[in-house]
Amino acid sequence: MSSLLELHNISMVFEQKSGLFGKATPIPAMVDVQLSFEPGEIVALVGESGCGKTTLGKVVTGLHKPTEGQLLYQGKDVWKMNKAEFSEYRRSVQLVQQDSYAALNPMRTIFQSLSDPILQHKLVRSRKEAYDRVCELLDTVGLTPPEQYIEKYPHQMSGGQRQRVLLARAISLKPKLIVADEPVSMIDVSLRMAILRLMSNLNKSLGIAFIYITHDLATARYIAQYGRMAVMYLGKIVEQGSVHDVLAAPKHPYLQALLSAVPVPNPRIAKAKRELPLKSLDMPSIMNPPSGCSFHPRCLYASQTCEQTAPSLMPYGNTIVSCHHVEKVPQWTIATVK
Amino acid sequence: MNENNIIEIRDLSIEFKLRSGTIRAVDHVSLDIPKGKVTALVGESGSGKSTLASAILNIVSAPGTIKNGSIFLNGEDILRYNANRLRHYRWSDVSMVFQAAQNALNPVMRIGEQMIETVLAHKKMGKPEIIEKASQLLDYVRLEPGRVLKAYPHELSGGMKQRVMIAFSLLLDPQLVILDEPTTALDVITQDYIFDILLKVHKEMNITMLLLSHDISVVARVADRIGVMYAGKIVELGETFEMFENAKHPYTAGLIQAAPSILDDVSENKSIKGSSPNLLNLPTGCAFHPRCEFSTDLCKLEQPRAISVGKDRLAACHLNEKGEMLA
Ligand SMILES: Nc1ncnc2c1ncn2[C@@H]1O[C@H](COP(=O)(O)OP(=O)(O)OP(=O)(O)O)[C@@H](O)[C@H]1O
Ligand SMILES: Nc1ncnc2c1ncn2[C@@H]1O[C@H](COP(=O)(O)OP(=O)(O)OP(=O)(O)O)[C@@H](O)[C@H]1O
Ligand code: SF4
Ligand code: SF4
Ligand SMILES: [Mg+2]
Ligand SMILES: [Mg+2]
């Protein structure tokens, strides 16, 4: 049996033009990514701002055509599908966009935004049925009572409320995979748990697979507790494995630094300057990535080899890591930061 | 007006008339924003943080209206400013990084052009000078000026746009910067870095900051003072350490308890029970009573007033009134 979705050596290189006649600069947002997703599984994707997570999400959902490599949906090459197959793939793989303003049409009420897709895909037959279904969807995502929200325009809702509307729209089409790009970043702690629980229930009861893109390691760990985690750095996957294994013993120096930076709800600890295990906080230019291992200018363990040769993902212990010196990197545990 | 305050908000109420009824998103709020400090407002989604902030810029969005109250900037009521004075006030006196930074950028203009336009709308300055200043600020927020100035918004990631907006907010050397959830789109390393920069800017340029966030852990690091909002009201206000170590309102205590600690198992975290209040149909008395473990009959009947519970400390909870009587 084939996986639900496979990325084979996918690269996504954007071009930025610097003027009408200026020459385009290539921006490699994803580099040679190899990943696969099984039906019903949850994969958390974490990494630094600008490292290519959204790009990966958009490639997976067919919004960007990769510049290299193959994307397979149920074994079929997405970019060689016929119209019917492509449309079925697009319905089955939904994206909850990071930017909830851009994702909702400002001129349309929540009812209009939510009823259109289900009417189009004939999941409901009449406006009346659509109304009931939209109410049900709003209810599912905790926008209750639905009457309070259904006639609102996006700008009349708070950030967290809009993000829930997007989740409602994604599930309305009964997809097989939802790519949720920072779906709870604007929601407070108590509602965040409710949304995560909702995603978890949708996963269990309807078997919807999720790619959960986030920078929040605590929620990644919660939502994907039985799933996998992939860590991205400058367009590449640098560590991957079961969430439990990855967090119990993070190996890649970047991941260790990331974990050390998680904020603590205690002002005395938070205000005392914590040293992160990094040589530099500066993020290298994506247009001009460092040679060899692209993490080397910031890595405490970098050697000459690291400056010259790029490491590749190799199994180490229970996870897969891309680091030349993985054996030498000290063990990191949650207790290390206190 | 106390001259140590840059902004004084007095008895401010903001209502939204909706088809299903009227909600009061900000309910009789009074708040001082002291000069040179970082004040933070925290509270659940929908508690009214962004609405309150929009009033400080006098840009409450329709159908919202300011029902009553005043907002003083160095003693002048900004709600009475004429259009001309308001234009200067926004960005040059007070600037804001909006919650959805993405939304504030013009999709068909390059970032550099937008920065130039913003500055020129407010003062005379040469383009090279503006570009130099913009580059320095972009550099502050860990972006490559060369690329970003030439980029259109859609060519930047969510976190990059958020950082562009932080740079934007500092462009005209404002006295007060309002940051509405400024780091929600950022990983923790970048967030750490941005807060370092903001604190540096705050100290060096003596800029006052108002930070809005639903995450009390984020605020712990930078804020000098914290105000906690619930259902449109400020229910507790005080100095950061005091608030964390000696909360006087059960909701504040709940927020601190519920904050996830370093990679705590989130499922075990003690989130505040019950759901956020329906603004169309607020509970009687103390709006928090259905979720409060200390609720008494009095709480269901009577709204607690905000009373002083220490130096520069306010709390609106009947428990404190009793405490005061005992003392
Ligand atoms: N359409 C585009 N044209 C040019 N460059 C782009 C485009 N989309 C993304 N990029 C660039 O690709 C890189 C990766 O962006 P992406 O949005 O995938 O990051 P991200 O990991 O989602 O970041 P964040 O956590 O901040 O949302 C960035 O440098 C961004 O500027
Ligand atoms: N333009 C508007 N029209 C109608 N209702 C609005 C409008 N703007 C805000 N509201 C309502 O006012 C209340 C307060 O919203 P506000 O955005 O101020 O909350 P918030 O504390 O910033 O929440 P979040 O953490 O989700 O950003 C919410 O119930 C919201 O639905
Ligand atoms: S390969 Fe070298 S530079 Fe890269 S993470 Fe490993 S030790 Fe650091
Ligand atoms: S006034 Fe009563 S219900 Fe409200 S927070 Fe205090 S004890 Fe709880
Ligand atoms: Mg993104
Ligand atoms: Mg808000």
UniProtKB/TrEMBL annotation, chain A:
Tell me which SMART domains the record gives: AAA (SM00382)
Short name of any one Pfam family annotated for the protein: ABC_tran
Q: Which keywords, in A-to-Z order, does the entry hold?
A: ATP-binding, Nucleotide-binding, Transport
A molecular function GO annotation = ATP binding
Domain ABC transporter: start-end pairs: 5-259
Q: Which family does it belong to?
A: Belongs to the ABC transporter superfamily.
Q: Which organism is it from?
A: Paenibacillus mendelii
Q: What is this protein called?
A: ABC transporter ATP-binding protein
| Highest taxon of source | Bacteria
Record carries keyword Transport? yes
Automatic annotation (TrEMBL), chain B:
What protein does this entry describe? ABC transporter ATP-binding protein
Answer whether the UniProt record assigns the keyword rRNA-binding to this protein.
Answer: no
What the entry lists under PANTHER family is as follows:
ATPASE AAA-TYPE CORE DOMAIN-CONTAINING PROTEIN, OLIGOPEPTIDE TRANSPORT ATP-BINDING PROTEIN APPD
Q: Which family does it belong to?
A: Belongs to the ABC transporter superfamily.
**Where does this polypeptide localize?**
Cell membrane
Entry's SUPFAM superfamilies?
P-loop containing nucleoside triphosphate hydrolases (SSF52540)
What keywords appear on the UniProt entry? ATP-binding, Cell inner membrane, Cell membrane, Membrane, Nucleotide-binding, Translocase, Transport
Note whether Translocase occurs among the keywords: yes
What organism does the record attribute this protein to? Paenibacillus mendelii
Q: Where is the ABC transporter domain?
A: 9-256
A molecular function GO annotation: ATP binding
The record's principal subcellular location, in a coarse class, is: membrane
Topology term for the membrane:
Peripheral membrane protein
Regions annotated as coiled coil: none
